[in-house]
Design goal:
about 425 residues, alpha+beta, Rossmann fold, Dna Ligase, domain 1, 4 domains, globular, binds adenosine monophosphate, binds glycine
């Protein structure tokens, strides 16, 4: 069987490694992949957002199944384009990917169907937004409607900051068209939990829960990033919380999407906050999380390809989705200066142990050498019987990944460990 995976980050590397455990899969193309993925798949230089070329390539090369991993191609209709060529896919069609593509859509969906989330107002007119912010409770949260590389959320601690954020987004265009409409949202507090769930549009099978670390600095200080590390499972996701999420959030979301004629198939990501009033949705993503995938898939004991096919074929109900009861920790190495500005082109080296445990994100081949080419460069995952050991092992093994200016947080998993104890 020949598979195609769209995307080229650490998440896609983890998906590809997991898929390769199935002996029926003979070949995997990664579009575009990256210099590290090249060891595990054939990388083809087609951008993840060039959906016509992707569909053409898949048809020409008789691809049996395609996995579309990143948000932008999903929102642009990559699954629709592949299906039009007769290729079966993992991932939602564009009409369902809108659950991530438009925050206004997802907020209105939750309101209409009574799914717990922060209270909000929508504005596309600056004066109306400024008026509202004159008396809105502070802190408040301002979100660009569309995709903004995970950066379209501003938590404003003062009224002035809130107004500035609204001005920057609606008038200043800092997020382009994505920000011309904004959601102003109630500020919630509580621990955050990421839950990725497989769904075929009827059944939902949640994966093991995880915890991301989004800020660049230790103790959650500094700027937001794409994610500096993850642990799984998340200790705040107790059995009781899980049951409430299934009854109040997961199934209602699947049913709501069906009722809207937008059946969602693939991986639905629930970004949750466990508030004093119970679990609430902070965001939906229409895809696997990054770097959540790098701790979740290594704990998957069932066959990933079989599950993916079941989401496409509508047979998830009788497909096993089993996770190990161990713990996983992933530590990201980033280029010095990320998420603002950084240099590229530094050679990356691995010990054999580190290479085996590492998913490569921002790196490309320069001849035979692997060199840095992005902000987040690698993610190294360790699995162990206890969270404490998983964290220690992830850091120990990460020492075997080297490049000039490598930066990492030193406290990945610390909060989870404290919660567990
Ligand atoms: P998002 O890009 O929607 O995941 O938002 C980025 C981060 O902003 C989240 O992980 C939260 O930490 C924070 N955030 C988003 N919405 C809220 C909210 N309503 N209240 C408090 N924090 C929020
Ligand atoms: N780790 C957050 C995301 O994938 O959006």
């Amino acid at each position: 069987m020949k598979l195609l995976v769209v995307g080229g980050g650490g998440r896609e590397h983890a998906i590809i490694r997991s898929l390769k455990k199935n002996p029926e899969i003979e070949h995997i193309y990664a579009l575009p992949g990256n210099g590290g993925i090249a060891k595990d798949a054939e990388c083809i230089n087609i951008s993840a957002t060039d959906i016509d070329k992707i569909a053409e390539f898949a048809a020409l090369n008789n691809v049996d199944y395609a996995v579309v991993a990143p948000d932008d191609p999903l929102v642009l209709g990559c699954v629709d384009a592949l299906e039009a060529k007769g290729i079966k896919c993992f991932g939602p069609r564009a009409n369902a990917a809108i659950i991530e593509g438009s925050k206004v859509f997802s907020k209105n969906l939750m309101k209409k169907y009574g799914i717990p989330t922060a209270k909000y107002e929508v504005f596309d007119n600056l004066d109306a937004a400024l008026d509202y912010l004159e008396t809105a409770p502070i802190p408040t949260v301002i979100k660009a409607d569309g995709l903004a590389l995970g950066k379209g959320v501003i938590i404003a601690e003062t009224r002035e900051d809130a107004k500035k954020a609204a001005r920057d987004m609606i008038e200043g265009g800092i997020f382009g068209a994505s920000g011309s409409r904004v959601v102003v949202e109630e500020f919630l507090t509580g621990p955050e939990v990421s839950v990725l769930a497989f769904t075929d549009g009827k059944t939902v099978k949640p994966m093991v829960s995880s915890m991301d670390h989004k800020r660049i600095g230790d103790n959650d200080e500094g700027l937001n990033t794409g994610g500096m590390g993850t642990v799984a499972p998340n200790p705040y996701y107790t059995d009781e919380v899980a049951k409430r999420c299934m009854d109040e959030i997961f199934m209602p979301t699947i049913n709501a999407m069906n009722a809207e004629g937008r059946t969602f198939k693939g991986c639905l990501y629930f970004g949750l906050m466990i508030t004093a009033d119970g679990p609430k949705v902070i965001e939906y993503n229409c895809r696997f999380g990054d770097p959540e995938t790098q701790v979740v898939l290594p704990l998957l004991e069932s066959d990933l390809y079989t599950i993916m096919r079941a989401t496409t074929d509508g047979t998830l109900d009788n497909t096993e989705v089993k996770f190990s009861d161990k713990y996983a920790c992933c530590v990201i190495l980033a280029s010095n200066g990320y998420p603002v500005s950084y240099k590229k082109g530094f050679e990356i080296t691995f010990t054999p142990e580190a290479e085996e445990h590492t998913y490569v994100a921002g790196a490309k081949l320069d001849g035979e050498k692997l060199v840095t080419s992005g902000g987040r460069v690698t993610g190294t995952t360790a699995i162990a019987d206890s969270l404490k050991t998983a964290i220690e092992e992830a850091y120990r093994i990460t020492d075997g990944v080297k490049f000039e200016g490598a930066y990492r947080r030193s406290d990945i998993g610390k909060r989870a460990l404290a919660a567990l104890n």
